[in-house]
Specification:
Mean pLDDT: 77
Largest sheet: 4 strands, antiparallel
Strand content: under 5%
Number of strands: 6
Strand order of the largest sheet: 4-5-1-6
Structural class: mainly alpha
Shape: globular
Distance between the termini: 85 Å
Low-confidence stretches: 1-23, 28-33, 182-197, 853-866
Radius of gyration: 33 Å
Length: about 850
Amino acid sequence: MSTTVAQTTGDSQSATDGSLSPSEIIAEAEAHWDVSGSSILIAWALTAVSSALILLLFSWRRTKDPLIYTPRVNACAEYKKRHPDAESEGVFIPPVPIIDRAFLGWLEPIWMDFLIEVNPMNSKRVKERDKELLQLLGLDALTYLQFLRLLRWLFFAICVFVALPLTGVNYYINTQTAYGSVSSSPTSSATQAGSSNSTTGLLENLTVANISGNVLYIHVVFVYIATVLVFFFVSSHSYQHESLVKSWINLNRNEVAFRTIMVTDLEIDPCHSRQTSNGRKFKEAKMIDEVKKEVCKVIGAPPPGAKTTKVTLTHKNMGKLSKMVEEYVKKHFPRLDRRLTALLRRRKQGIYQVEYDNCWHRLGCGHSKTIESLIGDTNMKKLAIENEMALSRTHKDMEDSLPIPGTVTSAFVTFLTAKAAHEGLKICEEKIKRERKTLQILQRKPISVQLAPRSQRIEWRNLERDIKSRRNHAIMGEIALVLICFLNTIPLMAITILANLETAIQQIPDLRNLQNSSKLWKAFFTSIAGILPASIGAIFSYVLPYVMRYLSKWSGALTRGKLDEDVIRELFVFLLVSNVVIFSLLGIFYESYLTLADEFGREGKLAMWQSLGDEPAKITKAYISESSYWLSWYPVRAAVVCLELLQVPRIALKLFQIYILARTANDVKTLSEPRTFEYAIEYSHILFAMVVAFMYVPLAPLVVFCGTIYLWAASIVYSHQLKFVEDTKETDGKVWRVVLNRLLIGTTLMQLLLALTIGLKTQSFPMIMAACGPLIITAILWRHVGNRKTTGQIIGEMEDWRKEKKIVSVFEHDLLKLDWAPELHILPEDEKEFEKALDHPKYGDSLRSLLGMEIKKRRKKETKRG
């Protein structure tokens, strides 16, 4: 590290007394968070080698294991077969992705995208490419990839125009001028001299840790440049996103959700207050038809009619039907599938004895159930579900003349067209604004209105709860979330120790002797210090998002889009507070306090605090030096992203399930389905990496280079994963504005941290104000993002598709869809025995009834073949 300048008189005296000076206290805190340069280089070297091996192994295996590496291809093909006319009817159906089977063929589309984007004259081709991806992936997937493209090119531009020149400027100032002469005292470095090598000294010279004085105006200028780059990229991508939303609406022009308003927080009384001629008051139940008209009146919509609106109430609890469907799909149908497959295979081998449900029943212990009774029972359960669904549909058709059973808290109002729904939403929002003051006086909560999500993206159990139950769940969920977030900070203690493993080893004689015994042990401990802290952090950051998602769902999130927004906000705040504020700034002050407390026994408290002098200027060096930890954190995260291509955990699990546990064609089919991509969790990881890179743009530019490598790796990997591996539960791009706001928060933190650093180093008010100048540009950009058009506003400006719809559709509960039952898949070698089973005198009719329309489809195919 750099040699020190002359210390103050108080510092020198305390050093001779055998106690620590203020400079030494801060140096001890700085060493606590320091990661050696050798550990960083080893971490990046291991990441480069492992990533190259992963890419080569993936390129070799990706076409040989389609169940693992291309499950979405088969899923899209089957979905298209089941809905051949959906695209012409205005409903989005993803096409089947085309696989390039060359060894590195999966990289060719990524390379072509790079060539298109790197040329500024290809704006038209970029739009065409985005529309093709929109049809292939959907809006949520393309929004995620667009955000990654925004970040990778933004940070590439910051690297070229800010980080690269600023790194050279820092090195020149630190080595060639007097402005870089401020450093900490080496008197305390007796405990850490071994950990400060030439590499660490070089890394420190590339930061602003030792720089002070008016030369910091250079860093302010570079922050202005970075802020202008953010403004340019965010603005251009916002315009592109609006264009994508318009195309998406056109692809889904007949989606019922686009023509429906979801109304929540209603409190419509189920009874009329009446009064007899003699003045006696009584209550009379309202008819459902009256309640629907009241809902329309509350939101200012036309009354229900075939060509105006249709109202769907959520007063009927579908919990019983939901439980029946869940039990059938997860328990009864898989058991029948396994027993039927075993029957066909045994018949194929010539074994015709009585088939029991399992060996326990064969011995007569418990109730004995043969294959005949199992088919009959399963068929009865399916018929019960279908009868319940038919009853629910019949009830909906005849419900207008029935009394409402309870208080109505939510409803769906469907209009003839999407444009009419947006106009109705706008009228309702204006009505709520006018009535807000009156509701505040009455201490009543106003209703909430929004464009409805797709029915399969609604959390119906939360929606069917009453307002009191929803409020209780929300309170308990918040308490549990705070408790879990508090407990999750415990692993940070272990990360703190491992991040400064060298200092810990020097305090333990046995470990110190072991390290000095050979170069092999020294290399081992150096590698551990570089890799293990970030690895532990990665493991706990992987588990926490799933816990937070479950809690948010239990707390009462009504839609999947709202669930994603809540998880992104909560997880972003937690990661920022725990990893940056607690782990960095508060940790430094806490470490300084521990050192001071040890000295209170030798010096008076007042004397200690008075001797601090102008040491706040050196505190900045402690948290700037923590950038070395993030230099070792990014390679681990980049390796984890590359490992997602290979999917080692999924390979081990799926191969075991398919070849050991899977006993039927349906088991294999279920296991080969693509996994749902959790956008909220993946966004949170990307956003946190982005914020860390932003914060160190003016302070330690080398971190920006590492962050840029990570973002490019994530963009390449997830582009492939979303095309061929992961599936999407579409929310129509709800989180775009949320993630843009997080990007602006990262920009603001960059500016505030530079202002804090300049304030501590110079105590100059004009310099602090100059450092806060970029906040004005960020505020303008924040307003610009807030004024961008929402999906509803875009719908309102688009053409009216009234010609395509003459009668208003009904917004149905997701359980009332016709394709709820799982399909039975039979292997080709079992087809003959299966046909014999269909003609069996004892259970053939039950089996035909159980399979329903599948038999008709099978017979049609056979007729065409014959």
